Amino acid sequence: MEQTYIMIKPDGVQRGLIGEVVSRIENRGLKVAAMRMNVMSEESAKEHYKEHVERPFFGSLIEYVTSGPSVSMVIEGKNAVVIMRAVNGATNPVEALPGTIRGDFAVETGRNVVHASDSPESAQREIAIHFKESEVTSYSKVDEVCLYE
Ligand code: IDP
Ligand code: MG
Fold first, then answer.
1. Is ligand 1 within 6 A of the CB of residue 70?
2. How far is CA 28 from the centre of its chain?
3. Is any ligand 1 atom within 6 A of the Cβ of residue 91?
4. Which domains does the chain have, with CATH numbers?
5. What whole-number percentage of the chain has pLDDT above 90?
6. What confidence tier does 9 reach under pLDDT thresholds 50, 70, 90?
């Protein structure tokens, strides 16, 4: 099973969207393997977004994701990476389709509610930043016999 790293960013937490986001993930048929709320450290945030270090928005991005509590999750399932990128919608909410999290709950790129890893390799890198191995559970769920052929 594939894993992906999901974050409900501080704006999502402040706007009371934790339940909504987790519901969408569970309803889709993906499994929560790890979940934690904390204020992300600046060090973790900079490591997480290091590909964007040269971009003009890097400073404000780090400030934003460390500005308050966020929810970190490891989400598991077949094709979890691609599915979660689709569940979240386009980076810029203006382009995000209705029915996606960003298309339903966001208006601006700098406040786009959620993060999802963009490849299985990024997912493993990001999971290692935010979770210890012992914090990621491994279990089978009863609905898997219905979800997978
Ligand atoms: P992603 O979150 O869909 O993977 P990325 O291009 O990797 O999008 O950008 C990471 C995050 O950086 C975005 O989700 C958004 O919060 C922020 N970001 C990206 N581009 C801009 C911008 O032009 N202005 C402000 N923030 C941005
Ligand atoms: Mg990205």
1. no
2. 15
3. yes
4. 2-132 (3.30.70.141)
5. 100
6. very high
Nearest-CA neighbor of 15 among 53, 70, 58?
70
Please, are residues 96 and 106 in contact by the beta-carbon 8 Å criterion? yes
The burial class, CB within 10 Å (0-12 / 13-18 / 19+), for 106 is buried
Q: Which two tokens stand for residue 92?
A: 């810029």
Task: Give the pair of three-digit tokens for residue 106.
Answer: 């966001």
Question: Catalytic residue among 48, 52, 115, 130, which?
Answer: 115
Name the residue among 115, 120, 49, 113 with its Cα closest to residue 85: 115
Residues in CB range of 60: below 8 A, 6 or more apart: 110
User: Distance of CA 12 to CAs 1, 19, 32, 136, 144, Å?
Assistant: 27, 10, 18, 23, 29
Task: Evaluate if pTM is beyond 0.90.
Answer: yes
